[in-house]
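Work Package 4 report. The design task specified in the project plan requires that, given a folded chain encoded as C-alpha cells, an amino acid be chosen for each position. We show below one input record used in the internal validation round.
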C-alpha cells in the first residue's frame, strides 16, 4: 500500500488508510495486511451451549424412536408394522397410506438431519479447540492499535459491545499465531523496533519495517 494513502488520525490515535473510514473497514484492512492480527473470538460458551442443545434434542429424538420400537415389538402391532420394522421398502411404502409408518419415517429423517448437524459441529469444535490463542506480545500490540489511548481517553476502533471483543484472552484464537519460543522472544527483546506493530502503518511488512528511521545504530 502506498504511503500516500496513509494518514495518522490524531483524534483516533492510530495510522489508518485514508481511503477507508475508521471502524470495520480500517480493522479489516489492518488484519488483511498482517496475518499476526488475524485474532478472533472463540465464543466457547456459545459453542458449548449450542452443542448441549443439539445433544438434548437428539436425546429426545432417540427416546421417541425407542418408543416406536417398543410399539412395534408389542403384541398390539399388526403384520404391516412388523414388516415395516424389518424392511425399508415396506416402511417407505406403508408410509404413503399409514400414519404409523409416516410418523416413523418423518422421525427417522429428522434424526438423520440433526445427527449430521451435531456430528459436523463436534468435528468443527474439535478443530477450533486445536487453534492456538494469540501470543502475549502479539495481543498486546493488537490491543494497543485496537484501543489506543489519546490524551488519557481510550478510543476503540469498534464501538458498542464490540469495544470489549479482545478483553478475554482465553476466548481468543489466532489464525496465524507467531512463534514465541525462546529465540523469538530474544529477537523481539533485542530488536523490539523491528517487531513494533501498534505505532506503524497498517500495511506493516518486513520491507517497510526495515525502512524505518529509528532502528538501532549500525543495523
Amino acid at each position: 500500500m502506498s504511503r500516500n494513502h496513509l494518514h495518522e488520525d490524531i483524534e483516533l490515535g492510530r495510522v489508518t488508510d485514508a481511503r477507508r473510514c475508521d471502524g470495520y473497514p480500517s480493522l479489516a484492512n489492518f488484519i488483511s495486511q498482517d496475518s499476526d492480527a488475524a485474532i478472533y473470538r472463540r465464543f466457547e460458551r456459545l459453542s458449548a451451549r449450542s452443542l448441549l442443545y443439539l445433544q438434548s434434542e437428539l436425546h429426545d429424538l432417540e427416546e421417541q424412536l425407542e418408543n416406536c420400537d417398543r410399539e412395534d415389538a408389542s403384541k398390539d402391532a399388526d403384520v404391516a408394522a412388523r414388516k415395516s420394522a424389518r424392511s425399508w421398502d415396506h416402511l417407505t411404502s406403508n408410509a404413503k397410506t399409514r400414519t404409523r409408518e409416516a410418523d416413523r419415517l418423518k422421525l427417522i429423517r429428522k434424526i438423520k438431519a440433526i445427527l449430521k448437524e451435531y456430528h459436523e459441529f463436534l468435528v468443527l469444535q474439535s478443530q477450533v479447540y486445536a487453534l492456538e490463542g494469540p501470543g502475549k506480545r502479539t495481543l498486546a500490540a493488537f490491543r494497543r492499535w485496537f484501543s489506543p489511548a489519546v490524551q488519557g481517553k481510550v478510543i476503540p476502533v469498534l464501538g458498542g459491545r464490540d469495544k470489549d471483543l479482545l478483553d478475554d484472552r482465553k476466548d481468543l484464537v489466532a489464525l496465524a499465531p507467531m512463534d514465541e519460543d525462546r529465540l523469538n522472544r530474544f529477537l523481539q527483546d533485542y530488536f523490539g523496533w523491528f517487531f513494533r506493530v501498534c505505532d506503524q502503518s497498517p500495511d506493516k511488512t518486513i520491507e517497510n519495517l526495515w525502512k524505518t528511521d529509528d532502528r538501532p545504530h549500525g543495523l
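Strands lie at 6-9, 14-17, 39-41, 149-150, 153-154, 172-174. Validation will be extended to a larger panel in the next phase.
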